[in-house]
Write a structure and sequence with these properties.
Blueprint: H1 17-35, E1 40-47, E2 50-53, E3 55-56, E4 69-72, E5 84-86, E6 92-93, H2 97-107, E7 111-115, H3 118-128, E8 136-140, E9 163-169, H4 179-188, E10 194-197, E11 201-206, H5 209-231
Parallel strand pairs: 9-10
Antiparallel strand pairs: 1-2, 1-7, 2-4, 3-6, 4-5, 7-11, 8-9, 10-11
Helix pairs in contact: 2-4, 3-5
Length: 244
């Protein structure tokens, strides 16, 4: 066995998590930089019992496979003392790690994405000034809602007339302290694929990398649309009868 298990992050397969994470981080960073809209990181992917995590302190557009952490889910006992199969030298795990792990443990997610989308933040601010329903974003009768499944362990996708609900939790000074609130939101909204963090951003996940990416992009579209609808005093929820 090699020192530090470096073989776990070496592969010629472009779909290998150690190659996929840096590549997607670069693509997301370039998209955010060119559009000045959002910043994303792809910190977690699952490969069998192995979890691949991006580190803290590395510029996302410069990330390399050797920067990736690897841990074995079945060997974890204390969430505050994670045991890593591989740790890159001179780096440290992200404070977001326990939140990413919650998505895997509670939803068996194959990938979890954290975004600091300005549209996500604006949605939480718009909800904050409301007198009621401050803790959930709701929207219906929008085509893009079809991008989401009906919920964990449920068959089929949401429909045009369905209402998409994304819970909102309050921000904390330290990211890892959000974990208990994220888990509570997942329990209260078992069908959600994402949780908004007020004045901070979004955690979003999916069964696969492709699904997580699809959910992240679809939510960013819906959040931006909702902000524009608010400007025009258009309601996010509407009563439209299905065409028979």
């Amino acid at each position: 066995m090699e020192d530090n298990n470096d073989h776990l992050v070496r592969s010629t397969d472009c779909e290998h998590p150690a190659n996929l994470i840096p590549e997607l981080c670069r693509k997301f960073w370039n998209l955010g930089a060119s559009n000045c809209e959002y910043y994303r990181e792809l910190p977690l992917t699952i490969s069998s019992d192995l979890v691949y995590l991006a580190p803290s302190g590395v510029q996302k557009e410069l990330m390399q496979p050797e920067n990736i952490y690897v841990l074995e889910m079945s060997k974890q006992v204390d969430p505050k003392k994670r045991i890593y199969l591989r740790s890159p030298p001179n780096l440290k795990p992200s404070q977001c790690t326990p939140l990413f792990m919650a998505a895997y443990q509670k939803r068996n997610a194959g990938c979890c994405i954290h975004t600091h989308s300005q549209w996500a933040v604006l949605i939480t601010l718009l909800l904050e000034r409301r007198s009621e329903n401050k803790k959930v974003f709701e929207i219906n009768n929008i085509e893009q809602i079809k991008a989401f499944g009906r919920g964990w362990k449920k068959e089929g996708s949401m429909g045009y007339h369905d209402t998409l609900r994304i819970p909102v939790i309050e921000n904390t000074p330290f990211e890892e302290d959000l974990t208990v609130y994220l888990e509570s939101a997942m329990d209260a909204f078992p069908d959600t694929y994402a949780v908004l963090v007020r004045r901070h951003g979004l955690y979003v996940w999916g069964d696969t990398v492709s699904k997580a990416k699809q959910h992240a992009e679809s939510l960013d579209y819906l959040f931006r649309l909702a902000v524009e609808m608010e400007k025009l005093q258009l309601p996010w929820l509407s009563d439209i009868a299905p065409i028979v």
